[in-house]
Amino acid sequence: LAGLPGTSLHKLQIIQNSAARVLSRTRKYSTEYREITRLYSVGKSVEKRELYVMEISDKPGIHELGEPEFKYIGNMHGNEVLGRELLLNLIEYLCKNYGTDLEATTLVNNTRIHIMPSMNPDGYEISTEGDKSSVIGRNNSNNFDLNRNFPDQFVNITDPRQPETIAVMNWMNENPFVLSANLHGGSLVVNYPYDDAEGITLYSKCPDDAIFRQLAISFSKENKQMYGGHPCTDMYPNEYFSQGITNGAQWYTVPGGMQDWSYLHTNCFEVTIELGCFKFPLAEDLPKYWKQNKRSLLQFMKQVHKGVKGFVLDGSNRKGIFNATITVADVNHPIKSAKDGDYWRLLVPGVYKITASARGYLPMTKNVTVKDRQAVEVNFTLSRVTDYKINSHVEVSINSSAGSEEEFNKLVKNLSSKEGLNNLILSSPINLNLYRYHDYKDLSEVLRGLHNNYPGITKLRR
Ligand SMILES: [Zn+2]
């Protein structure tokens, strides 16, 4: 029923939500729709308001193997309120239509959805309805702009990292998010990485420019006014965004923004969406905004199912390999497999060479054709380096279960022979310089590789 004018639901929607109402509404849904929702908090704002997230899934609280995770974040700027309100509409829409509407049901069954209506609840408290373009309430309670508060690839961000920023960074590090949008207001356009270009306003292309453009258009083309490209003619008469999308830095540079950090430091592809020219529109206009953006919000979520997905498995025990690297030839942006070896790689249609590699395993490359439909499933079963013949003369098997003294001596002898150790090193998929320091990533991979080779006498805890 949501979205149809004149229903009682609509009367509910036009009540502007105070912070308390956001909470009571999200709580209400998590009680009424217990089977498909879970309400949790990722931390607290400066003024100790919870940063609530509603999870919507057919198995809330659980990462289902192979199922991608999606998130929306709203109200990062406290006085840009449309995201906050529309996300409440979206939660309600998914809950009410689950089990009856095919699209909503399929989304909830096949996606783990996380929705944070407000990342800056404190800023919202001092904002005012009817505020078209001010900055009152934009920042958090310590007066820092949260979308300038993330580590940046070009600029050293010296402002102290804020509790809201830290909470969201931790959340993003702890969950295998694949796709995300950060909802703002004050214009009408989808903005994609990079947002920064060493402080210069110019198109700052990231390696995944093609898929980011496709993701951005999936949202903009469902919103007629946005797609038209002339968003806020009374405020900015000359502004034009072809197809309602823009590269972030081409519009203006944002050092310390969330979307670039997400792309560069997690597996999650994120865009920033300006939902309307008015930052804090009158409550009576909210139904209009929901109507304008509802299809966009749903279409964008579906994009999490594009590209390639699958598992990276250990050939000896069929277990998933955590933190394996998935590389796409000619796209310089590797992603990592999640805890159970599952991975998701968003890509536009095309033919790709995709390689899975992990420390201690032989890498594997596959040719993959991506079409403009559901993600193609590609699994990689990797062999341990040490399960292989090192060369035709020296056969080495480091396997703790076959650990008789005779075999051990043979192994040591083989490794010590003329080419034994060299061959072992050469057959390793990753550059194994013998003398070097190990950064954190390296350290993790070395420990994991050692554990895989010596499972009988080591245990790796995390
Ligand atoms: Zn904003």
Describe the structure.
It comes from Callorhinchus milii. Keywords: Carboxypeptidase, Glycoprotein, Hydrolase, Metal-binding, Metalloprotease, Protease, Zinc. Its cofactor is Zn(2+). InterPro entries: CarboxyPept-like_regulatory, CARBOXYPEPT_ZN_1, CARBOXYPEPT_ZN_2, Peptidase_M14, Peptidase_M14_domain. This protein has 462 residues and is an alpha/beta fold. The chain has an 8-stranded mixed beta sheet with strand order 1-2-4-3-5-8-6-7, with helices on both faces. α2 packs parallel to α3, α3 crosses α11 and α7 runs antiparallel to α11. 45% of the residues are buried. The N terminus is likely disordered. The structure holds zinc ion. Zinc ion (ZN) binds next to loops.
Key traits:
462 residues, alpha/beta, Aminopeptidase, Immunoglobulin-like, 2 domains, 14 helices, binds zinc ion
Mean pLDDT: 87
Unreliable segments of 5+ consecutive residues: 1-17, 389-403
CATH topology of the largest domain: Aminopeptidase
| Radius of gyration, CA atoms, in whole angstroms | 25 Å
- The CATH architecture classification of the largest domain is 3-Layer(aba) Sandwich
Cofactors, ions and other ligands in the entry: zinc ion
Characterize the largest beta sheet: strand count, sense, and whether it forms a barrel: 8 strands, mixed
Strand tally is: 16
Task: Give the proportion of residues in helices.
Answer: 25-40%
CATH H-tier superfamily of the largest domain: Zn peptidases
Shape: globular
Portion in strands? 15-25%
Number of domains: 2
Q: How are strands sequenced across the largest beta sheet?
A: 1-2-4-3-5-8-6-7
Number of helices: 14
Keywords: Carboxypeptidase, Glycoprotein, Hydrolase, Metal-binding, Metalloprotease, Protease, Zinc
GO molecular function: metallocarboxypeptidase activity; zinc ion binding
Active site: 274
Family: Belongs to the peptidase M14 family.
